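Following up on my earlier message about nicotinamide-adenine-dinucleotide. Here are the inputs again, as you asked, copied directly from the submission form:
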Amino acid sequence: MQINETLIRSVVEQVISQVRSQAAGPGLNLSGTNSANPNRGHSGLFDNVDDAVASARTAFEQLQQRPIEDRKKIIDIIRRISISQCEELGTMEMEETKIGRLEHKIAKLKTLGEKTPGVEFLRTECYSGDRGLAVIEHAPFGVIGAITPVTHSLPTITGNAVSMIAGGNTLVVNPHPSGRKVAAEGVRRFNQAIRAEVGIDNCISLICEPTLETAQQLFKHRKIALICVTGGPAVARAALNSGKRAVVAGPGNPPVVVDETADLDLAARCIIQGASYDNNLLCIAEKEVFVVNSVFDAMMDAMSRAGAVRLNESQVDRLTAAALQVVGEGADKHHAARKELLGQDASKLAEAVGLRVDPSVELLYGETSEDHPFVQTEQMMPFVPFVRCSSFESAVQCAQKAEHGYRHTSIIHSRNVRNMTIMARAMDTTLFVKNGPCMAALGLGGEGYLSFSIAGPTGEGVTTPLTFTRERRCSLIDDLFILGR
Ligand code: NAD
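Thanks, got it. Here's what our run produced:
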């Protein structure tokens, strides 16, 4: 009797588990080949670039036959999954990449679902006159190759997919190797739902084992119509030299200027909010602050009042030795963040200098010189150097130097409109924020829409569906439309 009950329970459990796994689709297993692994070769998961591009091309041809309403359905599916599964996927991203902060990994996915621009951006322009009619439409490129960073692996793919598919394209993603698993799981979920609800598979295809070689293959593939890279200096350079049209969302090192008219307590709260978000992984995040001398000490006090912890000179020196290293040769010699501390919590950075701070502390800060490596390096960790400047003009000059001509993001805290204008002109950055945290520029607490690919070097700015379209003009040479004849 005992044996029978055990047997029955075991059979029932097996059946339930089988039914569950069939309902959920095959779970993600990144090992194995196309033939051995049921996940490979569909649902967007591919072992090699040729297969991924061919499948994305088939998906593109199917999408071309569908009305724009179907593109809307697809991006609504991506947004829905991004919102409803943000906790699970955000946790996976945190566990895999081990950088940043869990609450922000989750928030990024949720906000992307809510704030990404869609097909409504594809407004047709029309000219009519004595010689007829010209209609300007926004047509897709085809299959786009996307390279995505480890700092926001799935969020970048999600934002790119929404914009690119809204524009009528499909995409092949070469994710950062250290964020490839969550990238693959997100892509699998998106594709399975799209296939079930719209009947097209592989709209978003992904290389499961990405390398620099597979990125190069994507750059060179003749069926890739356009590339979009989001990453640091090396990949930005590689894309610009690829010989293919590229949308390049490159690195930044956003400076903040605080002048004597600023609301210092507000400035401190904004700097903490922006610089500590996801432990400073955002390319738009406040990375160094230049404060005019007359309010420097008051600004440092305001930072402490707002909850940041100040490091003294010797602690800053110890953190510099622990967190940064010299890399490169000759003219390319520069400082870079050490992996062990990149994107780690403020309390872990403090530990590295022998200081115990409460885990709730979001940001460390300290005074440095203008040429300090923490000022000049895009460090991506929750320590912000503050530099004392003799005047507003000198603060802007320092900000220009620290930004390295990326023209990415800069920020001012001031009530002086003239100073705002002077800095805006001098910096000429893609994003310029006045009296707010950096993320206000992406619609988070400010106006506008969200994308995690901000194309500075190639000039498209915060990418939208229009970024991924070609202009196409249809002319009717006739007097049929001319009224009053
Ligand atoms: P990363 O440059 O190390 O990697 C980005 C991607 O490029 C990865 O997929 C990587 O595998 C690939 N890659 C790197 N070198 C390559 C090469 N030579 N050829 C082909 N592919 C190459 O950057 P990361 O650490 O993943 O992300 C952080 C960087 O990205 C920061 O510099 C940050 O400012 C930048 N970023 C920019 C934006 C933006 O919108 N402008 C957004 C997010 C991140």
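One observation from looking it over: The pocket of nicotinamide-adenine-dinucleotide is lined by residues 147-151, 175-176, 212, 215, 230-232, 234-235, 238, 249-252, 283, 378, 452-454 (CB under 6 Å). Hope that helps, and feel free to reply on this thread.
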